[in-house]
Amino acid sequence: MGSIFAHRLSNLPGLYAVIGDPIAHSMSPNIHNALFENLNIDAKYEAIQIAKGQLREEIPSLLGRGCRGFNVTIPHKVDIISLLDELDPLAERIGAVNTVLVNNHKLIGYNTDGPGFLESLKQFDKLNINDAKVLIIGSGGAARAIVMTLAMNGGAKLTIANRTLSKAQELLMHSKTSGRAITLDEAESCLAQYDVIINTTSIGMSPQRDKTPLKLQNVKKDAYVCDIIYNPLQTLLLEEAKAKGCYVQNGVPMFIRQAALAFKLWTGRNPDLNQMNNIVYQNMLKK
Ligand code: NAP
What we know:
By secondary structure, the protein is of the alpha/beta class.
């Protein structure tokens, strides 16, 4: 780590951004710009396309324009770490950053995806996550954020199921929890054990909208089934879980909470989650 860009930072007011590739589809500018307007904050938020391998060339010009913070998405969540001055302990454990704060000419990296997911579970009134048996399906970047956050939060008993078992085993080892890593077939057959089931794979999104990561025939009737996909708003997995009588949650609550946590880091203000939720639904219904 260690920023080579600090001398280029400027004190111009109010620019925030999301960097990624592709980035044109991002809803983050709609959300953050509406929040700035609502809270009378003189700032704007832009989506900036930066190709993989171009961070070192492109970040200085963003900082030179007075950028005070930015979100980081695919493919830069890991690569950005080498350009930071400081890394929050949770982001360090996750090994990926989705939010950068520019503070006193320093770049500080955070990961708000996992905490955003954890916060979203509060929507389930009766769920005590610290007491729950949790099945995480998938072992990619989003799974990593959720597993590390749940592990640091303590309490929950974690099982990770993945198509590639070795990735689930590696993630479990890294989380330092005494859970299990299993195949999708094993998860399917012992599904009745789990209070909370979280899909973090991309199965359910286009072009796999007509698929589920596993069959739900053994799910408990009162299980909590979360799919972190938000496009479509209701995946086939959630549709089937609902039909089985489970409590369900799509990816919108996680998405808006990770954005709210980033907004709080940058501005010190708590944004209106209802406003954020409405913006996401308006955008999704236009698609
Ligand atoms: P990723 O790093 O590419 O991981 C993808 C995961 O899906 C891996 O575990 C992969 O298994 C599994 N997978 C993919 N295709 C599969 C298939 N055909 N059969 C079985 N498993 C399959 O992706 P990610 O960044 O973690 O993102 C995953 C999803 O989360 C995306 O849909 C993304 O939009 C969503 N997401 C939502 C939020 C939110 O705020 N709601 C935030 C972040 C991500 P292998 O290891 O075997 O390849």
